[in-house]
Amino acid sequence: MSAHVPVAVVGGGQAGLAVSWYLAESGVDHVVLEAQTPMHHWSDTRWDAFTLVTPNWHCRLPGHPYDGDDPDGFMTRDEVVAWLDRWLEDFHPPLRTHTRATRLKHAPDGGWELTVVPDGGEPQTLTCDEVVVATGGYQVPIIPPYAARIPARIEQIHSAQYRNPEQLPDGAVLVVGTGQSGAQIAEDLHLAGRTVHLAVGGAPRVARSYRGRDVMTWLADMGLYDTPVAQYPGGAPAREKTNHYVTGRDGGRDIDLRAFAREGMQLHGQLVDCDGAALRFAPTLAAALDAADAVYNSICADIDRHIEREGLDAPPPSRYEPVWRPETEPTEVDLASAGITSVVWAIGYRPDWSWIEASAFDGAGRPMQTRGISEVPGLSFVGLPWMHTWGSGRFIGIDTDARHVADVVARRVGVAGGLRLAASG
Questions:
Q1: Which CATH class is domain 142-345?
Q2: Do 330 and 278 touch, CB atoms closer than 8 A?
Q3: Which among 156, 152, 180 has a CA at the least distance from the CA of 345?
């Protein structure tokens, strides 16, 4: 590895490689550092029945839009991996795999100094003028402290480790969390005939299709994926919201937890503790289900207004009505009596910026940035949820974000006029 390179991109996921694509096209000398293999999270942290929740046409990377024959469908995990592999067949980034960045600090003579460690090797020092951090916002799986009080006989895994129902021991499964992963994993287990206890959090839900089209296609037409976070309804706090749960499985459908309950899934409020023998839940189930349905109906109403405003021809409107309501909300469940033998934690991740020695983060630990460009000269970010728009953490927004970051970086390292591209192709 060269001792100095003008630009270092840390992270070889789709966001970091998209920046690399633009830098390469503009002739900017750079290196991409990846701790494992490029875009490995798609194969390493998704379960066997995983599908995208956004339509395939949302998938677009620099020079590589979706190239299949089902733009309105939902690729499986393996199809996404194959699509990404085809991108790398034509695009050969200056990639250093199995090379982890462990420290970033200001260099004594200006610019940056990176400490990098190849697998099985000794730490090396790389200097650069610009650093683009593309490690994403989902780095450290969250497992609460009280998990240590759950008996050792009960197997515990994070959603990133879940692959299929067969990997878990016989018996009932507790799934904690109802974001996209938790809701879909609960469904996967339920469809396999497992007894599922689901601790329902505050995630909203959304219809899969409405008035003749996929809801996310409607939302794209309405400009929601392109609206900057500062202009988004609710403003910057929107960054803290959990994504809506829905599924692309079997061609795409709603996830209705009330329907699952009617079929035998045991729903509970938020899990708050375990005393070794019993789980303790907050009495929040009814309110959480009502709130999720309210968001569902609100989004449909927004689409109704869009259809009316634009004078579009569409099937008539409708409104979701609950198919089940909890009669009671028990706040304690005995593990042995319930037959629970495993727990899947699906309560998300937290970022880890501890390796970056720079005043680039706010009091909540979020990077202080505008469209990926931080307030610290020479330090940029890409691939963060809500970095610029709702689409920033999704395939639909990566190309635009990466191009902007690469353009700024190219100008700062002396490429006249920034990127020499008219479009991503």
A1: alpha beta
A2: no
A3: 156
Q: Residue 165, Cα to own-chain centre: how many angstroms?
A: 22
Enumerate helices (H) and strands (E) in the chain, giving the number of each: 9, 23
Q: Helix (H, G, I), strand (E, B), or coil: what is residue 193?
A: coil
**Token pair of 361 as six digits:** 């983060």
pLDDT in tens, 210-263: 999 999 999 999 999 998 888 877 666 666 667 899 999 999 999 999 999 999
d(C-alpha 392, C-alpha 236), whole Å: 14
List the beta strands (DSSP E) in 306-425. 332-334, 340-345, 349-350, 369-370, 373-374, 379-381
Give the SS3 label for residue 261.
helix
CATH classification of 4-139+351-412, choosing from 3.40.50.300, 3.50.50.60, 3.40.470.10, 3.40.50.2300?
A: 3.50.50.60
Q: What is d(CA 90, CA 215) in angstroms, rounded to the nearest whole number?
A: 33
The string of pLDDT tens digits covering residues 75-132 is 999 999 999 999 999 899 999 999 999 999 999 989 999 999 999 999 999 999 999 9
The CATH 3.50.50.60 domain(s) of the chain lie at: 4-139+351-412, 142-345
Residue 72 falls in which region: left (phi positive, over 0), alpha (psi -120 to 50) or beta: alpha
> For residue 165, what are the CA distances in angstroms to 42, 374, 400?
19, 43, 38
pTM of the model: 0.93
Instruction: Return all residues near 358 (Cβ < 8 A) that are at least 6 apart.
Output: 104, 105, 106, 374, 376, 379
**CA 196 → CA 51, 142, 189, 342, distances in Å?**
21, 21, 7, 10
Q: Which helix (H) or strand (E) holds 277?
A: none
Q: Which tens digits make up the pLDDT trace of 344-392?
A: 999 999 889 999 999 999 988 899 999 999 999 999 999 998 888 888 8
Contact 197/178 with Cβ under 8 angstroms?
no
Beta strand spans in 204-329 (E): 209-210, 213-214, 266-268, 271-274, 278-281
- Which of 397, 235, 270 is closest to 346 using CA atoms? 270
Do the bridges between strand 340-345 and strand 155-158 make them parallel or antiparallel, or are there none, so unpaired? parallel
Q: CB neighbours (10 Å) of residue 419?
A: 21
